[in-house]
């Protein structure tokens, strides 16, 4: 949640002395993958607890689509992810019943297809809007060339479904996730950058979705949101590492992490809250780096207070409660990893 806020409120700067501006770039292309991975994790827990999993997934998909389309119309400065979330929930009505081996196989398949289609489909649509949802352009945006297309960013969501099936209570498992994730997350950009520098490969061919042609060397583009395998695999690594570290730290320092837990339990509410606030602050082209970091800290800090107060009386956030409307009955017993 904090990384997402940094990306939305702090403008990346390369000029000398812009250390915090350069630091902000570390979060770009890392917050969204983790957000989607945790969504997939939640799908596994939801379908394990519910007696009507397909209905619950579809109801959430409809609500997320509606909220995402509404926000696209009224929050023009951000690329809203909720439409893609809705699509992934629809696809999950099939995914959650697939064996784990099949899901593992889908991750590189989505990554590989996305590496091709994101380049050759052409210039990306800005967002899928109400009047475009059922159009060819709207569907194309959701699947191939939008900000968060199924190919390849669905790989993050599927990885979350897989993680929900393993025993995250095991310290050995958590430590493995933290270690392997860190190596992959850090190692791939380093290797890709080294190859680009050593052999003079070109990775930027203009625009987010390129020039409508497939370029082999662009696969090494590890920059955030490039949609290329170097970024997808690196972002998967950092997301998995954060899950592993979180599982290791949370039981040992419950008071320390309680504010983070409070915000996380109201994740949809927070997403809408901070997105809406971009309408009332000046654009980053008109602000100083200090002001942007101040916005970020105030937005995140104020919501921590609101979330802690809310959880005194309620376990579920306001928008999270709406998302659960119409859900079927829950099973009384759940798999230990889902608790």
What does this structure look like?
This protein is mostly helical. It has one domain. It has 14 helices and no strands. It is globular. The C terminus is likely disordered.
What does the secondary structure layout of this molecule look like, with pairings?
Blueprint: H1 2-9, H2 19-24, H3 31-49, H4 53-74, H5 82-95, H6 100-120, H7 136-145, H8 150-163, H9 171-199, H10 229-249, H11 254-265, H12 267-277, H13 289-313, H14 318-323
Helix pairs in contact: 1-13, 3-4, 3-5, 3-8, 3-10, 4-5, 5-8, 6-8, 9-10, 11-13
Key attributes of the depicted protein:
single chain, 339 residues, mainly alpha, 14 helices, disordered C terminus
Report how far apart the termini are: 22 Å
Shape: globular
Structural class: mainly alpha
SSE order: HHHHHHHHHHHHHH
Uncertain stretches of 5 or more adjacent residues = 333-339
* Radius of gyration from the alpha-carbon trace, in angstroms: 20 Å
β-sheet strand percentage: under 5%
Number of domains: 1
Number of strands: 0
The DSSP helix count reads: 14
Helix content: 55-70%
Mean pLDDT: 87
Provide a concise account of the structure shown:
Helix 1 runs antiparallel to helix 13 and helix 4 runs antiparallel to helix 5. The chain has helices spanning 2-9, 19-24, 31-49, 53-74, 82-95, 100-120, 136-145, 150-163, 171-199, 229-249, 254-265, 267-277, 289-313, 318-323.
